[in-house]
Amino acid sequence: MIALGATAVGAMLLLSACGQDSGDLARQACVHVKLSVHYYELSTEPNVSVVDAARLRTKANAELRAALPLAAQATSSDGSMNSLMTTISESATIDEGHLIPALKGQCAQVDTNVNVNPAPPGNLPGP
Rounded CA gap, 98 and 112, in Å? Predict the structure, then answer.
């Protein structure tokens, strides 16, 4: 029953990704990443109870789990998105606090669309 549910969720994600480019998928993944970072950072603030910190870390982890399939789909269309997917997947074994600088940087690159080649300055010599 669980396998059937996981298969259905995977199929829905695949179908929902049809027609979307890698940048769109990466931006969707980064929405989850940013929420995760927000929850994680809230969990480390002073005067946050142990119970609240645990709840916030659970929410942060759930957001990263939601980001992973989107980042994987983005990577399969554009290999330059691999670092985002890999960093998100590392959260399974590394505390998110250590990954936050990389996650923020990778999502900043996604948000600025660094894969668009700017027009070169001036005129290029002809062939």
Answer: 23
DSSP secondary structure, 9-30, as one string = HHHHHHHHHTT--HHHHHHHHH
Q: Note the pLDDT tens digit of each residue in 60-72.
A: 999 999 999 999 9
59 Cβ contact list (under 8 Å, min separation 6):
35, 36, 39
Q: Tokens 């939601």: give the residue.
A: 66
Q: Are residues 72 and 64 in contact, defined by beta-carbon separation less than 8 angstroms?
A: no
Residue 45 per-residue DSSP state:
S
* 115 contacts: CB under 8 Å, gap ≥ 6: 23, 78, 80
Which band of pLDDT confidence, cut at 50, 70 and 90, is reported for residue 80?
confident
| Amino acid letter for position 110 | V
